[in-house]
Design goal:
Elements (H helix, E strand, L loop, with lengths): L2 H10 L2 H14 L13 E3 L1 H18 L4 H5 L18 E10 L5 E9 L7 H12 L6 E2 L7 H13 L7 E5 L8 H11 L3 E3 L4 E3 L2 E6 L2 E5 L1 E4 L3 H4 L4 H7 L9 E3 L3 H5 L16 E3 L13 E5 L14 H5 L7 E5 L2 E2 L11 E9 L8 E10 L16 E3 L1 E4 L1
Parallel strand pairs: 1-19, 5-6, 5-10, 10-11
Antiparallel strand pairs: 2-3, 2-15, 2-16, 4-19, 7-8, 8-9, 12-14, 13-14, 16-17, 17-18
Helix pairs in contact: 2-5, 5-7
């Protein structure tokens, strides 16, 4: 996106440097890197960065409004509502496609948003490895708002731990050591000092939760939640049964509370009005159905990582949907083939990380991750046997 930096990176690139870069990451957590890492970061100039952040802040304005909980109450399925919700999510993520508008100009377009964590730990070692093996200009950073690695880690620790000892705070997931993102769990565990705990390890006594390490039963006071309830529902019955603990009254704090996964999600898209947020409408509110369905995508509200998205919609597709209240139609955007690579150009999405410390009026943008694609959509299934695709970082002009 910054032509002279793109050209310089591509000219200096070597397969050997890329392999060394990967080894650098993998050596820290052997056999834990389970997704493709792209050969390149992307470079974003200040003007485009400012467009992204201005859009994020507009969305945050909606989230911090006094009537937001009322606005988003219907987003939470009754069967998945968990008690003891707090006042705000400690983490937010906003996904932007780098797109072209009708005039051919580059524009960020919001694709998705979540009140849920992302790869907050892993991206630190990704940045370190890039800096070790590639040339990044001093006036570009993967961090935002003046953050650096130290201040980023400090804020992350403060939010996750609050005032609790690290052993009383757990990173909770379903079968964490089998997840594709497990490298992030291990990074986070090392950075913050908290254990990675599977939901099957929870011990409940009254309203209290415990986990066991080295024969010692340790109380859980706070949960750094990496568990998605939809994923829990796909597990074996014995694991699903264990998961019912979470729906009981418990004396634990959540970071963030699972209800925020639904409140800040695709459900919010129809309520957002901004030039960089594609028009969206709940399917059950579409009367009449648009005649130009080729200009829309169909998205299920309650899914994650792009699952269930329908790109090529027909009237028959819509007629077969039994629960239209759980779907949205969203205007299609045109991803720009903007990242020049040795063969074909790649598309990119930038995910902005927002951290929200308890007591602060608003969250703050801290860093990012980026995904490169040469397929119809962003994601592994659309990029089989391709190079210069996968997970990466954006470096923003300061």
């Amino acid at each position: 996106m910054v032509p002279f930096l793109r050209n310089a990176f591509n000219l200096a690139f070597s397969k050997k440097a890329y392999e060394s870069f990967l080894l650098d990451i993998e050596s820290k957590y052997p056999n834990a890197l389970d997704f493709r890492v792209a050969e390149t970061p992307i470079f974003v100039d200040k003007a485009f960065k400012d467009k992204i952040l201005e859009t994020c802040e507009s969305i945050v304005d909606t989230i911090v409004s006094t009537d937001f909980k009322q606005l988003s109450e219907a987003a939470i399925p009754l069967s998945e509502k968990i008690p003891n919700e707090n006042n705000h999510p400690q983490f937010l993520i906003f996904d932007f496609g780098i797109c072209e508008n009708e005039l051919g100009n580059l524009t960020p377009q919001l694709i998705e948003l979540q009140g849920f964590p992302s790869l907050f730990g892993y991206e630190l070692i990704h940045n370190q490895a890039i800096q070790n093996h590639f040339e990044i200009p001093d006036n570009y950073s993967c961090f935002l708002n003046g953050f650096d690695e130290n201040s980023y880690v400090t804020l992350l620790r403060e939010i996750v731990l609050a005032n609790h000892p690290a052993e009383n705070v757990v990173l909770l997931e379903v079968l964490p050591h089998q997840q594709k993102t497990r490298i992030d769990f291990y990074c986070t565990s090392d950075i913050i000092g908290i254990p990675v705990v599977c939901i099957t390890e929870l011990i409940k006594e009254g309203k209290n939760l415990y986990y066991e390490r080295s024969g010692k039963k340790i109380p859980i006071k706070r949960i750094y939640n990496r568990l998605i309830l939809n994923d829990l529902q796909q597990q074996a019955p014995v694991i699903q049964e264990k998961g019912k603990i979470l729906f009981e009254e418990l004396t634990v704090e959540w970071v963030p509370h699972p209800n925020w996964f639904y409140r800040i999600s695709k459900y919010l898209l129809p309520f957002l009005k901004h030039p960089n947020v594609p028009e969206a409408i709940f399917l059950n509110d579409c009367n009449p159905i648009p005649t130009d369905l080729q200009n829309y995508v169909l998205k299920p509200l309650f899914s994650f990582a792009g699952q269930g998205v329908v790109i090529d919609i027909t009237l028959s597709t819509i007629e077969k949907i039994k629960d239209p209240e759980n779907w949205i139609l969203q205007k299609k955007v045109t991803y720009a083939n903007i990242i020049q690579t040795p063969d074909t150009a790649a598309k990119a999405e930038i995910r902005i990380f927002y951290f929200w410390k308890d007591g602060d009026a608003r969250p703050v943008a801290t860093s990012n991750l980026t995904r490169l694609s040469k397929g119809q959509m962003i994601g592994v299934n659309y990029n089989q046997n391709k190079e210069w695709v996968g997970g990466s970082l954006a470096y923003f002009e300061k």
